[in-house]
Each structure stands twice: as C-alpha cells, then as structure tokens.
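Retro notes
What went well: the complex prediction finally ran end to end.
Inputs used:
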Amino acid sequence: MARHLVECIPNFSEGRRIEVVDAIAEAIGAVHGAAILDRHSDTDHNRSVITFVGTPEAVVEAAFAGIRTAAQLIDLDVQQGEHPRIGAADVVPFVPIEGVTMDECVSLARTLGDRVGRELQIPVYLYEVAATRPERQNLANVRVGQYEGLKEAILNDPDRAPDFGPSKLGKAGAVAIGARAPLIAFNVYLTTDDIEIAKKIALAVRHSGGGLAYVKALGLLVKGRAQVSMNLTDYTRTPIHQAVELIRREAARYGVAVHHSELVGLIPQAALVDAARWYLQLDEFVPDQILETRLGDALKSDT
Amino acid sequence: MARHLVECIPNFSEGRRIEVVDAIAEAIGAVHGAAILDRHSDTDHNRSVITFVGTPEAVVEAAFAGIRTAAQLIDLDVQQGEHPRIGAADVVPFVPIEGVTMDECVSLARTLGDRVGRELQIPVYLYEVAATRPERQNLANVRVGQYEGLKEAILNDPDRAPDFGPSKLGKAGAVAIGARAPLIAFNVYLTTDDIEIAKKIALAVRHSGGGLAYVKALGLLVKGRAQVSMNLTDYTRTPIHQAVELIRREAARYGVAVHHSELVGLIPQAALVDAARWYLQLDEFVPDQILETRLGDALKSDT
C-alpha cells in the first residue's frame, strides 16, 4: 500500500494583501487529500508561495481551486512588484515525491492546464519538463515581457500561442504550469569577506559556467561573508555532496575554506540520506534500512 | 498531535522450531497498536530476534504476550545453542523512537517487569539504563553462569536476587528487561586483507581501548577484507561520522584506506541526517526542514 504523493508549489502575484493570500490558501486547504506544508509572502516582490502535497487527484483539484481564487481576487492591471509575473496565479509546478513518476507529473500539468483553459478561460503555458516546445522549458522565456508585454504578443505572435485556453489575456493574466524535480536552495559561506572569490567559485561550479549540470549559482556577500548561493535543480543527477565538495576544492585554491552551509526551505529526505551514504561510503545501503521508513510501511499496512 | 513510539527488540531462546517463533510473533502482532518491523532466527545460536514498535502501552502489552508465549513453549532444561541465555524470553529492551524519553522507557521496563514477576512468576532483572544496581547495567553480568548457573545462584546469592518475581527459576528461566538507546551495527571494510590492522584500529576506536565512549569494536577478516566491526551504542553521544573519520585516520597511519562501509539491520533516520549535517556543515539545519517530516506532521494533523 504505497503512498502516491505529489508536491505543488504555486506562486501567486500577491504578497501584501494578506486576506487575499488567506483566501487562496483556504481554497487549496479545503480540498480533501491536500495538506499545506508551508506558506511565504514577500511584500517587496508582492508575491506569495504556497507549498502543499497530496494525492495526484487532490493536488490538481487544489491547484485549480487556488488558481480560480487568485484570478477572482488579483487584478494584473493594478498589481505591481519587483518580481516578474504574467498572471495572478503565475507559476504552478508539480513535483514527484513518493510513488509517482515525473511522467505522471507532466500528465497532471496537462490535465490541470486543459481545465484552467476551458473552465477559467485563462491562457496556459506548459513549462520545464511539461513543455511542448524546447524554448518553453526555461520559465524565463515564457515570462518575456511580463503581463504587459504578453497582453500584446499573445494576440498576433504565433510563438506566444498558449498550450491551452484563449489567445487573449484578461485581468488575471496567464499561468505557467509545469513539472520539475524537487529544487534545493543551498548556500555555502566561506571564511572570507571577498565577494570576488565567491563569484569565481559560483562561475566554476554552475552549469552555465562549465560546471555541474544541475547547479545554478551566484556569488554574494551575506552577513559579512562571501557566499556561494546555489539552486540544485535535480539532486538525483547532481547530488549535494558533489556541489559542496567542488566548492570546497575551489575555495582551497583561493586559500579559503567552507565556514558553514545553509539550507533554505525544505529538502527531500533522500537528498540528505544520499549525502550520508556517500561520505560514509555505505555502498550496499537500501532506504528500507531506515527505521522510520520501515515504520511508515508497517503502520500503513496496519490499516 | 505528535506520535509516541517505542521500539522493542526481544530476544527469544528458540531459532530452530519455526512454529514456536511463529506463535511468539503472532502473540506480539495481535496486540492493537504494535507492529512487527523485522524478524530474524539463527539456528546455530538457536535464538530469534523480533523487532516491533508501537505506543508505550501497546509495546508493554505486546512484550508481555511474547514473554508469556515463549515461557509456555520453550523449556530451558532441554534448549541448547551457542548463544548465552538465562530464559525463554532472554532479553527485552525498550528503545525511545519518537515523542518518548529514555526515562519513560525505563518506567515501561519496570511496569513490564512487575507484571511478568507477579503474573508469570518469572524472575526479572532490570538492565542497562533501567538497572537498579550499577553492575547490572552490563547485560553480561546479569547472564553470568547462564540458565544453569543462575538456577543455583538465585537461591542463595543476594547479588543475584531478581528485581521482580520469585527467587527461583522454572523451566522458562529468567528474563532481562531494560531500556537503551538505539543500537547501530556498522562495519568498515579496509583496502587490505591484513586482519592485524583491523584489530589495531578496533582497539584504538573502541571505548574499552581508550577510544570513543559509545563504540564497541572488533577487528575481523570478512570476504577477504580486513573489517572493523562496530556497535554504536548511543549515536546521539558518539555519532557515526566521528567513528568513521577516526577509523579513516587510523587506517591512513597504517597505509590503508576505507574501502566501503556496511550497515547491518535498521538505523534511525536522525543518525543519517546527523552525518549529512556534519559533512555538509549545515549548522542551522532543523529536522523540520525535511520534506517528509513536515509531510508526516501535516498528514497527522489532518485526521
């Protein structure tokens, strides 16, 4: 009796009117089988992120409820904020967590997109793994020109035609719906305040600089320390320990060391277990040896 | 709504008559709120280990049911095997897993001991953290002379007086009931077939040789490789990574390296997470950042 669990992390273009975010969260949480794990609003970005999980059916239902409520309460003609956006519900990614494949998440994105297009008359762009055109794998391409620019472009540029829904923007704008691997936000602080070292290391480590395939990285100065700030976009392909050890080696080349690391937000248990396995050289380890995993299975088969 | 979970790992002096072990396991598994996670019988040792978890009330009830069934079906006057033993149910440790303290497990050991002494008329010795005399913290002292020796000693040696039950052994013998931290069986293989190196490292690493406080270790030759075989008796005090890194350093001093490691049986998730945190230098990490932990809490509060 394995669980089938999908995570969904929709971003909404409202981070100031808390009653609006409350209403969206309530619509999501009211769906049976969906549970909200985390919620974060940013007033400068004027944007909120709601993290929830549930069965495949429940997450589609809950995401639809969130998109519908956002479309009713957020007007892109007046919304302003630092963060680029094309719609009230701006980005809706599905992430496979347990007993679900990436292909199934792609198919959830299509199911939801079809329904949003038909029932809410909102244009939908499929992105990342769910993308129907290679250039739409990159969310930034989908959001070019933002709401204001897309309003014109969608009318006559065939490259901007939506995957579902009308080729016309209302006040709720459009929504990007996709599927992706879990993202891990991981920062490494160095024993120096020299931001140039952090920038050089970030360039060496990130994919776009010739580094690791599933790493995005920036060099920053945070709390008086040089920091290599990373997004690990697929820890099953580029594991955390590989990124950290490469940073450690690059840092040594500049005469500095890793002071400490920082995890922003949530991390799948498997990503930490992978790191422990690698460092401890546990070649034959199977996840079933984790007491809590065995426990979960025993308690589930009990019902 | 936190869970309250205790693990219990009773050892029974029967590893050959599978129908007897089946009957004991059935008695344990029949208790509502207890779930069997693992079961292992050894014919040479003529001994079986059953691992189960449950609420504090359920584990006491299930352990009692297992002890009663073992006492009915195992006769120590005829039982033979390589493993030292004093009773049909030989050793019954309680281990805190989630939402339960060590003190609570000590009190469960006393509750069970009292009941076994009164209702089954079996002598009970409290051991490890539950011990009432310092010398009984070490299980080996409780088992001196085994069933045959204890049969005489219990009659007239005040040092062998049980904590509960009569000062007289029946055919079911006596039982040691205790509380302890989770035990991790962890083996490190070296890049050599020289068992002397493994023995020297084991001596340096283990507590009795002047090494780490919660480590027992032996040097062995396994599958053609020198192996440092460890029992980590309290990973919260002596973490795995500390033991592994000390072995790595000692190995380097003899010109060899760690080939790979091996985990025997189950491990608490926290022990692996601790290792990942240490190697990745995640100073500010909190377990609540693990997606599955957040998930478990969300799904629990859902009901």
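What we learned: Chain A has a mean pLDDT of 94.
What to try next: split runs per interface for comparison.
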